[in-house]
Amino acid sequence: MVLAAASVALAAGCTAQAAGSGGGSGSPTKAPTASASAPTGAPTEDGKPPSPSDTAATPTYAPTETPSGTPSGTPSETPSGTAKPKALMDDGDETEQVRELQARLRQLGYFDRAPTGFYGTMTAGSVKAFQKKQGLPRTGSVDEATWQRLLGASRKPTADELKPSTTNQLDTPDARCMTGRVLCISKESRTLAWMIDGKVVSSMDVRFGSENTPTREGTFTVERKVRQDWSRLYHTPMPLSMYFSRGQAVHYSADFAARGYNGASHGCVNVRDRAKLTALFDQVKVGDKVVVHW
Asked: Which residues contact 235 (CB under 8 A, 6 or more apart)?
């Protein structure tokens, strides 16, 4: 009879009792008998746990399925009901797939800047917004379900979408920029477009002077070029300077590269991409037009 009872227990897939329920390790210490009149581990009348002798006299569990019916050795579900899906992309990753992710999110309006290829807090926030719209778990990381949903909702990014020429989007060029060789500088989009006969040759992000030292607007010409210059008034370096209006120039700014738009110039047009400005400096000639506009 004991062997038969054990066989039934194994077939039923009994699980170990949860910690604190009064049970043991899940294996009976004694076969149940007809004289057993109380459930295993029942407290005494004074509320204390049963004595060892009481436990020995009664079975530690009933050899049938527990209410959950979970087989022995199978972990229960987490409180959320499911385990977190495996992430394809997550915080701290830096890959070309992350760049594509950002470009696709930008197409749909969830990512408002140029793709960097680095998965940080801004990318995680954009992913959460997309997941919410799609009715997916808002994990902030990209699992297979999120990636497939994004692929279906967007198109394959172009080379310019993956690595755009500027962080800021170029606006419509001013009419004065449509003829000749022009440094077309927009305060509205905070961009500089190097244009020849109405076509954009290259472009870059720029920042301007503060309210107290504003960058002058209008039509000018490149007066002179100085590859390595220094501001005697503000005691700061001004590499790759192209002067266009009485001391105001287009030049590289290490501060702009480090702090972005948290700072401002003293009236000059700052550029933060040194490599692009170096190439532009070599192309621009003294006498070329400069247009600063809104």
From this structure: none
**Beta carbons within 10 angstroms of residue 182's beta carbon:** 23
Instruction: Count the neighbouring beta carbons within 10 Å of the beta carbon of residue 35.
Output: 7
Q: Which residues pair with 182 in a beta bridge?
A: 195, 289
pLDDT greater than 90 at residue 216: yes
Burial of 110 (0-12, 13-18, 19+ CB in 10 A): buried
Q: How far is CA 73 from the centre of its chain?
A: 38
Whole-number percent of the chain with pLDDT over 90 = 56
How many CA atoms does the CB half-sphere of 262 hold within 13 Å? 6
Looking at residue 167, its pLDDT comes to: 78
Q: What is the pTM of this model?
A: 0.52
Find the DSSP H helices in the chain: 2-12, 52-57, 96-107, 121-134, 144-153, 159-162, 254-259, 274-283
End-to-end CA distance of the chain: 94
What pLDDT score does 81 carry? 53
CB 216 within 8 A of CB 291: no
